[in-house]
């Protein structure tokens, strides 16, 4: 066996037992950020003792679970797995052990040496933290902490029942990003001991598919499940344990479908205001339409998916038979309270899809950047066209649309349309707001003379002729000057020297 296939310990190491089990989450000893999943425990041909086969999350291994033609397990990529001795990996720590490490641990000399800035001459200048001891003393009083971050510390369990609650008496926000948690029952045990907990971040934990048997967590309002492998079927189970949920973040979970258990529309989530589905794999807008009856939903984040279209839900989906408490209230409209829709980084290339956003009753904040439709270099339209076509937008691509920008964009858009076509029927089909905008800005079509045939309608029909006549005798006689100005032009005091 080549030496590169295993992480070989000294020859004196000889182990025969292991506490590790298949699918257990572990991290490399001394590096809690290098996390993987146990896929094999046992002997490896050609080496004595016991080995643990690990499939590493970062993909930085040595093989695919096969060595010298023998397949011990199947890794996710050809180079994401390796064999290690049991003493070289860790099964993690409890929440309170991680708390001690993070908030009561002392800085090493190496860590202190790293606290510097570079001077103008590129020399290291040490940084002194003012009040460091005072801050450290406050953080060490666990009962006073309202927010705790235990990210990437190897947390794998809640520990002894009841201990967390007796220590973290005031905790409201808990960040457990990048740990070894996988069992939902362990997560529930942590939450149950923290009755004031309102925000929980479990991102980058590889969570189990089994979500059954969870208790009611009445105070949790923000839950972050980014990059956890959670699918919508699990979300539907979770909602019954989270009656007060206001924000749910599901980024990077390779979601393609939204699968309500009993109907075509997602029901429940009565308090949910923000749903983050960024960095997933949604392609069909019909999946997004299933969220249209979430009655409190105000912000829907769909950046960086594969969506090609946008459509306001039609009447067919609204007539979907529902049962019992799922009956829709009379007068409910799809996406009734949605005011922010983020669609950046998708594949939308049809301008008619943009027009459909006008049907959303309260939509004022829209992101369309990094879509072909909003990229003039890829055949899309510039910002002023988007503003003109979106009647209610107040925030576009993260930038406020001021009243002045809206007015200028709409007038510029009218000019553009009139310069491209004179066919009224074609204009009405391709530019739904055109007629409305002309009336709003007082721009009329050019009327044909009684003796001539009707010609192309021009922008000039909306302009006023203004003749400026010199009346200052001391300046000398100047010929009258005629200018055509838009009807909305503001005229202020001026002098003849300006003409």
UniProtKB/TrEMBL annotation:
Predominant location: cytoplasm
Subcellular location per the Swiss-Prot or TrEMBL entry: Cytoplasm
Pfam families assigned: CAP_GLY
InterPro entries assigned to the protein according to its UniProt record, in alphabetical order: CAP-Gly_dom_sf, CAP-Gly_domain, Leu-rich_rpt, Leu-rich_rpt_typical-subtyp, LRR_dom_sf
Origin organism lineage: Eukaryota, Viridiplantae, Streptophyta, Embryophyta, Tracheophyta
UniProt subunit comment: Supercomplex made of cofactors A to E. Cofactors A and D function by capturing and stabilizing tubulin in a quasi-native conformation. Cofactor E binds to the cofactor D-tubulin complex; interaction with cofactor C then causes the release of tubulin polypeptides that are committed to the native state.
One GO CC term, this protein: cytoplasm
SMART domains membership: CAP_GLY, LRR_TYP
The protein, known as: CAP-Gly domain-containing protein
Protein family: Belongs to the TBCE family.
Organism of derivation: Kalanchoe fedtschenkoi (Lavender scallops)
Domain CAP-Gly intervals: 42-85
The entry's keywords: Chaperone, Cytoplasm, Leucine-rich repeat, Repeat
